[in-house]
Automatic annotation (TrEMBL):
GO molecular function, one term: hydrolase activity, acting on carbon-nitrogen (but not peptide) bonds, in linear amides
Protein name: PIG-L family deacetylase
Keywords annotated in UniProt: Zinc
UniProt-listed InterPro entries: GlcNAc_PI_deacetylase-related (IPR003737), LmbE-like_dom_sf (IPR024078)
Amino acid sequence: MSLTSPSSSPLCSPEELIAELGLHTVLAVAAHPDDVDFGSAATIAALTQAGVEVTLCLLTTGDAGGFDPDRDPAETGRIRRAEQQAAASVVGISEVVFLDERDGFVQPTHQLVGQLVKVMRQRRPDMVLSFHPERAWDRLQKAHPDHLATGEAVVRAVYPYVENPFAYPELAADGLPAFKIQHLLLMGSPAERVNLRVDVTGYEDRKFAALDRHFSQHRDAQRMREFVREQLQSAHGAGGFAEEFHHVVVNDPRTISGF
């Protein structure tokens, strides 16, 4: 099975994804606690169960989220950090790294890109999983401005900066040399960009368990679960559950890089 066809959306198993992309380490980058749990928690659970090491980097603590108008934002951030740590343990994420961006105001600045390059060079992932930088008009809620900004910052970091030995020379001086990332897996994609569906049948309960850890974010937990189940079933199309992505090959043997 080829996962690189731009004209189709193949349904692959997690084992096929791991084997074809040669995955050993994955870095997931998101804007807020619960982002990856909505977008890719079942895929992450399948990867970690197969022995792939997954690190999660969150740009904010999500202090502008929730439904309690009387809660101090700092307290919301503390609660959401704890919720994400609990959710991460459900799906086997080995580490959660928090940066210090302001919830609701993330921008793809060169400072943020540099922070992401540092995290990438520290972990040296085979694949980076994050948000799509293009707005999804099919369901606008997928395209929160922080998500779009996160996706843009991640794509810029992945190419060219993480592999450019002349970029962020202070990182190389600190023992973090440039290297090439092979793959991007983008969630929240516009429908027309989806070119890969991962069959996560059997892992859906771990996704729901991870989502359930985000207590502060669910005004109607039952409706949330129904909606997510419908999305997973629709993505599969044959009675199972699947998560959808835009898979981008960044580097392979045919790639000619320039900076």
